[in-house]
Structure formats: structure tokens, C-alpha cells
Design a protein that fits this description.
The structure is a homodimer of 234-residue chains.
Chain A: H1 37-51, H2 58-64, H3 69-72, H4 79-91, H5 98-101, H6 104-120, H7 126-130, H8 138-153, H9 158-180, H10 196-208, H11 213-230
Chain A binds a DNA duplex (30 and 30 nucleotides) through residues 2-3, 5-6, 10-12, 24-35, 57-59, 67-71, 73-75, 78-79.
DNA sequence: TCTAATAAATGAATGGCATTCATTTAGTGG
DNA sequence: CCACTAAATGAATGCCATTCATTTATTAGA
């Protein structure tokens, strides 16, 4: 057991044994505050933009802010918290303006493309978003409000709005991954002979010469969802 | 520079300077081979089943096989390789049998539900699959072949088969995350008053009393995709 | 003006991780 | 029987997020 540094009781006991001698709290405000959540978010985005998500480490983040890594933990509980801040910032970039002015179909279309485009650049966030309670992400919640209101105005039965949004979102997240897939992802290699249908279908698509196959699939799926959900309106 | 252990040339040079003195290869086969990819895959699945993906470390995997961690690297290039093996094994569990016997609609429906159910338990694999060249995953390729053949037989134009499958897959992966989301994910908390449409929609869905909201959304989206894609058949 | 309280920042540790590599082990074809 | 080899070992390496006792700088209130 090497050098146990916490043998004796901590001298900074915050809330341990809170009953002892009333609640005393009369003090001043602290130092200049070099760090805050907005600054951390901005620095994280800068870092991600330059070196990708592999480059986003707490050490690198601290270094980019001229601060010790441990200092970050005064403003953020964990690295996951940093990712949450980034996620919420990005969600604010999703374009929901069409819900105010355009018909439901085109509003959904613009929103979905914008949503996919934003997170295609940030796929490592998707596992975080998918499980994230909206309470922790005000901008995300704001987006849901705008979209829900648009669905309601378009005549959607209220009890199906959330399910429809969830389905669209699921499709959007999955499609965001597609965008990042390598071009040769469907190259069946030496298995080509044993997979004639699939290999033929891949070749047939390639012969079309689309520059972005992911866009074709996204468009196909999105239009099917829009058509199918549009029929639910009353 | 502490203790540089690789100063002198390696004694095990495999392919360095391959021209030197012809190709000589006359030797015996090695020892008993405690380890192989099938065993590693099985052990990884056992570990994941017991402790989840956090429990899947190279050290834990080695320990479960009574072997040193470094021994794994004789059979696998990286941890990502292990995840690939697991992924391919799981894909083989996806039910594609309906494509042999049932009409296209119900075959797609069964396949999609099965696919989602398998990977809902293994969401950490989704980022791996989404970018995985099919060459590296024979079972995955086999699944694509069966599905492609089914689409072709159903009258799908060949050049749209891959896009349709990709769109369905995207929806399936995104929906797999949904399954794992906490029940209170849409609780707007103290922001409820400022998000009346969304909060109302959430309450309205909750009032329906579905035991699995993720299933409702998945069904809604899947039926829309099946209906939309079904119309493409000739 | 002094002092007590405080939030923020520091620096040194901790434990875990995947991966590398020189070396050893144990079978086998010639 | 021996040269060769694949597989296994164990000890590093470097990176990572996170913790914690301590120091610093600020300010409210007596």
C-alpha cells in the first residue's frame, strides 16, 4: 500500500455531519474564474475540429485552455459532461426555421437533412445523444418543442407525435453513420462469386454514378417516412 | 529516456528484407494452440453477457481464457478485431429465413425486428458495424446476400436495392439505441412550462400506456418504410 | 482594515487501459 | 535429433480519466 495520503480525516469536510452546530454560511466570492462551461465547450469544439474526437482528451482540452486537467473538474463532472455540452451546442445549429413558415413536408425535409448533416460530422456523439435525458440539454429540448409544435399544427394526432419524431431521429442518426462510411464499404472482395445478388446490386448502384450514395439512401428513406407519416394527419 | 529495450535489431524479423537468400520455409507446426478466433469470440460473448461492454477488456478476455493478454495478439490484431468477430457472430443470429418463404412485406418486417432486437443488446457495436467493410465480415455479407436476393425476387429495380437496404439498416441501428434509452428520457423537468407542445405530446403518448414506447416508434417507422419501398417494386 | 470563508486552480498521484517486444516454450517436418 | 516455427509469456510503455490534499486569490462582513 504505497503512501496512503488520506489516512486522517479530510480537513475540508463539506457536508459530512451537517447537524453539528447550525448552518454557518457567510463568505465572499472567489477568484477571477479563468474557466466556465461556455469556454470549455468552445475549446472542445475547436479541438474536435482540428484533431477529431480522438484528439478530445481532458488533458488536451486543459492544455488548450492553459489550465491543469484537474481544473476542468470544477466546472464539469466528467468527460461525458463535456460531450453533453458539445452535443447541446450542436443541436442549436440544426435548422428548424422551416417549421415556422413552410408546409409540414418541406419543413420535416429541411430539418432532417440539416440534423443529419450536423451529426454526420460528430458521430461519436450519437451514442451519447440517444440515451440522453432531454432535461440535461436545453437546446435539444428547444428543438423538440419547435418540431412538436410543427407536427401539431400540421394536424398530427398528439399521441403519435413523439413516436414519429423518434422514428425520424432514429433514421437520422443511423444515416449520419452512413455518411462517414468508406466508399468501398460494400466491396465483397473474394466473396463476390458466392454473393451474386448483392454484388450485382452494388454494381448496379455504382453504375448510376452518384457522387454520394449515402445521400441517395437517405433521400429514399426520408421520403418514404414523410409520405407514410403524412398520411397520419387529420 | 528510460531503458530503451529495442536498441538492437529484432531477432524475429518476419518480412523485413525479404529478398535475402530465397524463400526458405521448411519447418514444423507449433504447439497445442490453446487459443483461436472461435474461442476468443465465444469468450468475448460470455464476458459481454456477464459484465457488458465495459467488462470487455483485453485483460479480462485473456483472464477468462487463462492466458496472458499479449497472447491474444497472436490471433487478433487489435481489440477492434475482437469486436468485429463478435459483430459477425451476432449477425448470423439475425433471422432472414422469411425471405425464403414469405411475401416481401412480412419478410422485411421479420428481418428488421430481428435485426433490431439482436443489436439493441449490443449497441456499442453499432459504430463498428456502420463503418465496417463487408469483406471483413462473412456472415454479414451472407445476410446482405439473402436480403438482396429477396428484394430482387420481389421485383425491386436492381439499382435501388442497396439504397433501400441501407436506409432500412440506418433506421434499425438508430432504433436499436432507442431500446436502451431510459424510460424518463423525455421528461422535460423544470422546462415543462416553456415546452408546452412537446410536453403535451409526451404526456399524450404516456397516457396510451404502452409498455414499450420504443416498439411503437419502431413499428411506425418500419411500416412507413415498407409501404414506401413496396411501391417501388415493378 | 483585518479576517474568515470560499471557489477555483494546482500538481502529484492512482488505477486502468490497449498495445509492444524480447524472450521462452513446446511441438513437428525433414 | 535438430532446425524451425507459431504460440505464449511477462515486463514494459504511454495514454487515459479521475481524485485529492493543498495553495491561491478574491471578497463579504465584522
Amino acid at each position: 500500500m504505497p503512501a496512503s495520503p488520506a489516512d486522517s480525516r479530510s480537513t475540508t469536510e463539506r457536508e459530512t455531519i451537517p447537524k453539528t452546530g447550525a448552518v454557518r454560511r457567510r463568505a465572499g466570492r472567489p477568484a477571477a474564474a479563468v474557466l466556465d462551461q461556455a469556454g470549455i465547450t468552445a475549446a472542445a469544439l475547436r479541438l474536435i475540429g482540428k484533431n477529431g474526437y480522438d484528439g478530445l482528451t481532458m488533458a488536451a482540452l486543459a492544455r488548450s485552455l492553459n489550465v491543469a486537467p484537474s481544473a476542468l473538474y470544477n466546472h464539469v463532472e466528467s468527460k461525458r459532461d463535456v460531450l453533453l455540452l458539445v452535443e447541446d451546442h450542436l443541436t442549436a445549429l440544426v435548422d428548424v426555421t422551416a417549421f415556422a413558415a413552410e408546409p409540414w413536408e418541406s419543413a420535416v425535409r429541411k430539418w432532417a437533412w440539416s440534423y443529419r448533416d450536423v451529426f454526420a460530422e460528430h458521430t461519436p456523439l450519437i451514442p451519447v445523444i440517444a440515451v440522453l435525458p432531454v432535461t440535461d440539454a436545453p437546446q435539444t429540448l428547444a428543438m423538440y418543442e419547435t418540431v412538436s409544435a410543427g407536427f401539431g399544427r400540421a394536424g398530427f394526432p398528439e399521441e403519435r407525435i413523439v413516436s414519429a419524431i423518434v422514428a425520424l431521429e432514429s433514421f437520422i442518426f443511423g444515416s449520419a453513420y452512413d455518411v462517414t462510411a468508406p466508399a468501398d464499404i460494400f466491396d465483397s472482395g473474394n466473396m463476390a462469386e458466392s454473393t451474386p445478388s448483392f454484388t450485382g446490386a452494388v454494381r448496379s448502384l455504382a453504375a448510376q454514378g452518384h457522387e454520394k450514395p449515402a445521400d441517395v439512401a437517405f433521400s429514399l428513406g426520408l421520403e418514404a417516412l414523410i409520405a407514410g407519416f403524412g398520411a397520419l394527419r387529420v
